[in-house]
Design a protein that fits this description.
- The protein is of the alpha/beta class and 355 residues long.
- It contains 13 helices and twelve strands.
- Helix content is 39%, strand content 18%.
- A five-stranded mixed sheet has the order 9-8-7-10-11, with helices on both faces.
- Strand 10, helix 11 and strand 11 form a beta-alpha-beta unit.
- Bound molecules: adenosine-5'-diphosphate (ADP) and magnesium ion (MG).
Length: 355
């Protein structure tokens, strides 16, 4: 899994032979900063971008193959014993409104380099069926984390935040709430040269600017009804800059960006998961203590914890979900949840590149 945060590659080795998936190994590989910069640049039109995009797709395949190799070495498992790699790829454009989404990564090359069958391009089929192509994790949350008598909500705080609503006895649904970490990451990177705001400490040192928060919340996406999904196409540094007057203290802007993410999540829960009893967080943003404090205050009636308590580590949940999605593809099972993506019908997701 390599998500919108552009932090790096989460590789997880899963055994699905039992009733619950067993995590046999995990390995995280951060992107070199040059690759992160290149990927960021590809989010905007550039000269000869078709050529550059294909070269970066090859570079990503090399990085995914290297991460896979490290994972298997550490777990002492040989490539021939691995049924498939579920490779999300790196999103550089997400435009369901225009009928496409691009997750970069040369799957043919990854299959060649690793000697393992690769499943990729999970999102396009759902978009072809009229859906958003995202979020795809709600089906996995439904399968693994729902409770027959307790109303649970799962919130994945990656670059973008998305939620899955699991009301007992009713249909599971989900959507992208809005920004997760990506705006906070971009702001601290510009001002302090750090990749992210550890534990939300810098945000906690500032004060929310009410007028700026209001300008952030006026964004139409925040008021669009689900199904909906978003990415860096909408939320990026330019989006922040358009709403600044230039006089704000940087730490106060960080505090306001944190409040935006906190509001996007808590408002989504209040409006679309009324009566939710338990909220489980996953994704890197689940470690942002200042954000956790915000959510606890905004949702006093919910018990808020990490998914670790339910037996799936918050940092690895999405990587595990994409291994499961690959398994669904190989078994020819539909794995999109039309209630979450808005697709006209369930679909078999993904493309298979044989080893
Ligand atoms: N201790 C922490 N405090 C605050 N934010 C954190 C912490 N650890 C990770 N993060 C955030 O999590 C992000 C990575 O989360 P991840 O789940 O990998 O997102 P994505 O799926 O978009 O790649 C980092 O970029 C950072 O913003
Ligand atoms: Mg990540």
């Amino acid at each position: 899994m390599s998500g919108t945060s552009l932090d790096g590659i989460d590789t997880a080795l899963l055994d699905f032979s039992g009733s619950k998936p067993t995590l046999l190994g995990k390995h995280y590989q951060a992107y070199p900063s040059a690759l992160k910069e290149t990927l960021l640049a590809l989010h905007q039109p550039t000269q000869d971008e078709l050529h550059h995009t294909q070269l970066v797709a090859n570079e990503l395949a090399q990085a995914y193959a290297a991460a896979t190799k490290m994972l298997l070495l550490a777990a002492n498992v040989s490539a021939k014993d691995v049924r498939a790699i579920g490779c999300h790829g790196q999103t550089i454009r997400h435009r369901p409104d225009a009928g496409y989404t691009v997750q970069l990564g040369n799957a043919a090359l990854l299959a060649e380099l690793s000697g393992i069958t690769v499943v990729n391009d999970f999102r396009s089929r759902d978009i072809a069926a009229g859906g958003q192509g995202a979020p795809l994790v709600p089906a996995f949350h439904h399968k693994m984390l729902r409770h027959p008598g307790i109303h649970r909500v799962i919130v994945n705080i990656g670059g973008i935040s998305n939620l899955t609503n699991l009301p007992p006895g009713q249909a599971t649904s989900g959507f992208d709430c809005g920004p997760g970490n990506l705006l906070m990451d971009a702001w601290i990177s510009r001002h302090l040269g750090l990749p992210y705001d550890k534990d939300g400490r810098w945000a906690a040192s500032g004060s929310v600017i009410p007028a700026l928060l209001q300008a952030f919340l006026d964004e139409p996406y925040m008021h669009t009804l689900p199904p909906k999904s978003c990415g860096r196409d909408l939320f990026n540094m330019g989006w922040i800059e358009q709403r600044l007057n230039g006089k704000e203290a940087p730490a106060d802007v960080q505090a306001t960006l944190l409040a935006l993410t906190g509001h996007a999540i808590s408002d989504a829960i209040q409006r679309f998961s009324p009566g939710a009893e338990e909220v489980y967080l996953c994704g890197g943003g689940a470690h942002n203590l200042a954000l956790l404090t915000y959510l606890k205050k905004a949702l006093p009636n919910c018990l808020i914890q990490l998914t670790d308590i339910l037996g799936i580590e918050a940092d690895w949940l999405e990587a595990i979900a994409f291994a499961w999605l690959a398994q669904q593809t190989l078994q020819r099972h539909c794995a999109n949840l039309p209630e979450a993506t808005g697709a006209r019908h369930p679909c078999i997701l993904g493309a298979i590149y044989q080893a």
